[in-house]
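User: Sequence recovery, please. Input:
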């Protein structure tokens, strides 16, 4: 609606003929420090922020930045990026050397539960893709391994960081099934994660919930069957 407080709302909700945003490869006006004529190859919309990679491999983020989710690390800001994923309190991207870097909620934040660092492999692994949510980050390596981190990992002093103002945020969304040999892609969400195997099967994990704790839609333990994958299909992607 035109009266919305979000600047893009007039163009997001009106007819295409009422807006300058007609070509989906262009963004007008400029966002995230990019030129108005920038061409984009990747776009990821998080909870209250957005990140994108231009055709020139430059990364830009814009929107809500209380937790630093739009603050691309200065050491990597001018480098080339392959892809990016915007979560809720953080963002992650794959750099030109196929390493993953994440930024956002600082170590002392109540919302940092290990989803930013350490990234598995500590820079030694090469990554094909990355996905982010509120409490977790997941990715697929060049070798086809799926890995997730966060969900209440321990810090260097051995303290569990998974208990937040919302309670224990670890619902198993970081526990990748170990019986799968190769993964094609993976997507993580607030309370569960799913991935497509090399065989075209979707596997989901997380969704921990006891029936007596799932009465309300806004419960942190809610389970609506999001891990109950329909059978009889071969899948190409999952979100």
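Assistant: Recovered sequence (239 residues):
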């Amino acid at each position: 609606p035109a009266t919305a407080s979000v600047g893009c709302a007039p163009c997001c909700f009106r007819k295409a003929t009422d807006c300058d945003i007609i070509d989906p490869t262009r963004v007008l006006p400029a966002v995230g420090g990019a030129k108005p004529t920038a061409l984009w190859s990747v776009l990821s919309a998080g909870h209250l922020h957005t990140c994108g990679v231009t055709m020139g491999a430059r990364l830009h983020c814009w929107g809500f930045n209380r937790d630093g989710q739009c603050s691309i690390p200065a050491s990597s800001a001018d480098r080339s990026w392959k892809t990016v994923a915007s979560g809720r309190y953080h963002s992650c991207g794959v750099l030109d050397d196929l390493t993953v870097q994440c930024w956002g909620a600082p170590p002392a934040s109540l919302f940092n539960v290990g989803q930013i660092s350490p990234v598995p492999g500590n820079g030694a692994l090469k990554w094909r893709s990355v996905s982010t949510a509120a409490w977790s980050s997941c990715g697929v390596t060049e070798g086809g391994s799926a890995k997730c981190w966060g969900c209440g990992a321990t810090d260097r002093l051995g303290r569990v960081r998974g208990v937040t103002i919302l309670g224990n945020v670890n619902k198993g969304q970081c526990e990748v099934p170990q019986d799968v040999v190769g993964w094609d892609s993976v997507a993580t969400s607030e309370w569960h994660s799913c991935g497509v195997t090399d065989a075209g099967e979707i596997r989901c994990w997380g969704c921990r919930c006891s029936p007596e704790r799932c009465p309300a839609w806004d419960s942190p333990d809610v389970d609506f069957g999001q891990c109950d994958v329909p059978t009889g299909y071969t899948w190409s992607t999952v979100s």
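The two ends are 28 Å apart (CA to CA).
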